[in-house]
Specification:
Layout: H1 4-7, E1 8-9, E2 20-21, H2 28-36, H3 41-47, H4 53-80
Antiparallel strand pairs: 1-2
Length: 82
């Protein structure tokens, strides 16, 4: 199984350095916004045929991993270091 780290890329020259799906201009933020507005995976792929189910899942994995990282950093800064 492909890791989200193989799919989500950061290029400072594309979308102001926001994480995007491979070489597309579809960012993780875009994907999360579409999903939160109720778009289905099929609708997203229909609108952006360069994307796949794996790409959508990679965006969700990336967001979950970033959330875990933020929580750990917050805990370390405010709970452990005091």
């Amino acid at each position: 199984m492909e890791s989200y780290k193989d799919i989500i890329k950061i290029n400072p020259l594309k979308r102001f350095g926001h994480p995007c799906v491979r070489d597309t201009r579809s960012s993780v933020y875009d994907m999360l916004a579409w999903l939160s507005k109720g778009m289905s995976n099929a609708e997203i792929i229909e609108d952006s045929p360069e994307l796949t189910e794996t790409d959508i899942n990679a965006c969700l994995e990336n967001a979950a991993d970033r959330e875990r990282t933020v929580q750990v950093a917050f805990y370390f800064k405010y709970a452990v270091c005091r």
